[in-house]
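lol forgot to send this yesterday, sorry. struct tokens for the thing we talked abt
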């Protein structure tokens, strides 16, 4: 269970303070946002319409559009551009947040991640527009209302991120399942990481990272394990000799095959073959 689902909300003893640096704008032709210095405070940056690209601290977010929401932190270095044929309209709200018990700035780890694809654009836009109204108004309770609505906004961002993570995890598992099927259907195929990545339509680096995350092993090691598993079957259940098995499974070096096999099963493949009985063809037993 995450902290935000506990009875005590992690933001319960915090205070969000509004900043006059906020507004709503349709970005001008030729617009390119690149602050000269790192941000001094938080910036909730939301896309109302249009298309563009955002980079934060060197990490690129391509194809941003309506519903793209960034929670930029103090010290971040953002840079954004827009599609000149579909200009961006954005809401930006700068703020600070402190721990009421210590008086210190809140740790960013208690806030949602930097990027969210909003699940309910009508709701988030209602909340953001109300925040804009309060920033440029005076009167009683405005500070408290801003704090409460900002906390509600953070809660929704967190929930949408959890939903996105669950959907992404399911898609990733399906993708890794396709990789595993591709490897296992023909263990002797001399497929490179690039070949495997092209089979699932992603980059080799990204597939390698996902495979390690969801299986606990590298693609290279998994290919070796599958080959050795198949080698055991071929040695025990077919008339193929060690050299034939090694060649069939893509080994150009029989000594490497023997070494890996012994490391995996504790005995060299030649000894295993010697101990095994020749495979018998399936036939109908003769009746007496």
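and heres what i got for the seq, position by position
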């Amino acid at each position: 269970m995450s902290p935000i689902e506990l009875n005590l909300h992690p933001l319960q003893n915090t205070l969000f303070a509004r900043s006059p640096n906020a507004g709503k704008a349709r970005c001008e032709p030729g617009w390119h946002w690149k602050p000269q210095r790192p941000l001094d405070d938080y910036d909730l940056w939301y896309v109302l319409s249009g298309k563009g690209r955002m980079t934060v601290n060197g990490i690129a977010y391509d194809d941003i559009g309506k519903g793209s929401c960034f929670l930029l932190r103090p010290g971040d270095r953002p840079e954004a551009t827009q599609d000149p044929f579909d200009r961006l309209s954005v809401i930006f709200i700068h703020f600070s947040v402190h721990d009421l018990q210590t008086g210190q700035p809140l740790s960013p780890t208690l806030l949602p991640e930097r990027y969210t694809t909003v699940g309910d654009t009508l709701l988030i836009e209602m909340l953001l527009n109300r925040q804009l109204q309060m920033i440029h108004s005076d009167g009683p309770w405005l500070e408290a209302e801003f704090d409460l609505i900002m906390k509600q906004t953070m809660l929704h961002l967190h929930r949408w991120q959890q939903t996105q993570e669950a959907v992404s995890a399911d898609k990733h598992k399906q993708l890794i399942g396709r990789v595993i099927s591709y490897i296992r259907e023909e263990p002797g195929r001399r497929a490179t990481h690039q070949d495997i990545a092209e089979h699932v339509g992603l980059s080799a680096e990204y597939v390698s990272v996902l495979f390690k995350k969801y299986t606990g092993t590298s693609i290279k090691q998994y290919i070796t394990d599958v080959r050795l598993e198949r080698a055991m079957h071929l040695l025990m259940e077919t008339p193929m000799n060690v050299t034939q098995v090694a060649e069939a499974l893509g080994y150009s070096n029989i000594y490497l095959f023997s070494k890996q096999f012994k490391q995996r099963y504790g005995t060299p493949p030649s000894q295993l073959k010697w101990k095994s009985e020749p495979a018998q063809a399936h036939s109908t037993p003769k009746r007496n």
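Residues 1-8 have pLDDT under 50 and may be disordered. anyway ping me if u want another try
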